[in-house]
Design a protein that fits this description.
Blueprint lengths: L1 H13 L21 E6 L1 H14 L2 E6 L9 E2 L3 H10 L3 E5 L2 E7 L6 E5 L2 E6 L6 E7 L2 E8 L1 E5 L7 H4 L11 E7 L9 E4 L4 E6 L9 E5 L3 E5 L3 E7 L4 E5 L5 H9 L2
Parallel strand pairs: 1-2, 2-3, 2-17
Antiparallel strand pairs: 4-17, 5-6, 5-16, 7-10, 7-14, 8-9, 8-13, 10-11, 11-12, 13-16, 14-15
Helix pairs in contact: 1-3
């Protein structure tokens, strides 16, 4: 609350109009109206609204009140600096790749389409159980994975779940996506870095004696959806990038050193 009050006070000082909103729902129409939306919280707060911001073309910025804050433009101690950059128009806008994830019956157009900023992860609903999935790249089989799950991450998401699963760190502006098995049964299964022009198809396969067990896929670690054995996931780069606000003196290398304790 103190951070919000300070933000509002600083905006009033420089003549910026503000609208304080909390508890947005799917029916809210805030996005697309203001030029910039600021989130006060951690990365999870920003991830919860990233898809809406990308769809509307709204610039999304963050004041980190959480632990890591990879997505945030600044911490609470830099609120005055952030507001001054907004007033002067000296802030920078980075375009971050979003993933478009479609679930559909095999070889049919997906009726259920979602956007993800960090990653999409497929796993079994019952924890501790492994999955068998085929992964195709541009129509060609890459591998049949036997693992706890598989995930596809953007460069932005390379510092999140993908990193914990053994994926590589990727510079945010790199034009790639990373396919990483989660605790694979084979030691030769490793993360694969693909161009972001690739289209991936993930097909769940039935395991003997486990036909009744359900699978799920999660988007940015927040929303989860069921997927049947007769369905597939199509993953590709979304046409709408996220416009992420940053301060002009932003240094990603310095951020990595600070956030990862190098």
């Amino acid at each position: 609350m103190q951070a919000m009050q300070r933000l509002i006070s600083e905006c009033a000082r420089v003549g910026l109009m503000t609208l304080e909103v909390g508890g947005l729902t799917e029916k809210d129409t805030l996005f697309g109206l203001p030029e910039v939306v600021l989130c006060l919280g951690g990365d999870g707060t920003m991830l919860s609204v990233a898809a809406d911001a990308a769809r509307s073309g709204t610039i999304l910025g963050g004041v980190n009140l959480g632990h890591l804050g990879f997505l945030s433009a600044c911490g609470r101690e830099e609120i005055a600096l952030l507001v001054q950059a907004l007033a002067d128009g000296t802030f920078a806008v980075e375009e971050r790749t979003m993933l478009e994830v479609s679930r559909s019956e095999t070889d049919e157009t997906g009726a259920h389409t979602h956007l993800a900023l960090n990653e999409i992860a497929l796993m079994r609903a019952q924890t501790g159980k492994m999955v068998d999935v085929d992964v195709e790249v541009n129509g060609h089989l890459l591998n049949r994975y036997h693992a706890d799950g598989v995930l596809v991450a953007t460069p932005t998401g390379s510092t999140a779940y993908s990193l914990s699963a053994g994926g590589p760190l990727v510079w945010p502006s790199a034009s790639v996506m990373c396919l990483t098995p989660i605790c694979p049964h084979s030691l030769t299964n490793r993360s694969v870095v693909l161009p972001d022009t690739a289209e991936l198809i993930i097909r769940p396969r039935e395991r003997r004696g486990r036909s009744g067990e359900s699978l799920i896929y999660s988007l940015d670690g927040s929303t989860t959806h069921k997927i049947g054995l007769n369905e597939r996931l199509r993953i590709r780069k979304a046409s709408q990038p996220l416009k992420l606000l940053s301060l002009p003196a932003g240094d990603y290398a310095a951020r990595l050193r600070m956030k990862l304790g190098w």
